Amino acid sequence: MRPKKIPMRMCAGCGEMKPKKELIRVVKAPAKEESENAAPEISIDLTGKKPGRGAYLCHDIECLKKARKARRFEKAFSCKIPDEVYDKMEGELAGADG
């Protein structure tokens, strides 16, 4: 019997390829409003089931800081991300680790 394929994803912070189950999914939810000024909702998806465009991150706050500095989420989601969103994600990541 052939071994089951393990899906691999790249961490947006450190750039390492890791199994999908070891990473946290960051999701850009589809805009609820049709106006151009509506900011997209970006959040951490611990279940991996939320709809929307996803990017992956290690369970490490340092990886989040690297991704923030290099603007990797802004490139992945093609939109400007406010500092409050990064602060909220850092708090959620700290809560998930602890």
Structure commentary:
- This protein has 98 residues and is an alpha+beta fold.
- It is built from three helices and five strands; from the N terminus they run E-E-E-E-E-H-H-H.
- The protein has a three-stranded antiparallel sheet with strand order 4-3-5. A two-stranded antiparallel sheet has the order 1-2.
- A hairpin with a 6-residue loop joins strand 1 (8-10) and strand 2 (17-19).
- The radius of gyration is 14 Å and the shape is globular.
- The relative contact order is 0.21.
- The model has no long low-confidence stretch (mean pLDDT 88).
Structure at a glance:
The protein has 98 residues and is α+β, with helices and mostly antiparallel strands. It has helices spanning 61-69, 72-77, 83-97, and strands at 8-10, 17-19, 24-29, 41-45, 53-57. Strand 1 and strand 2 form a beta hairpin.
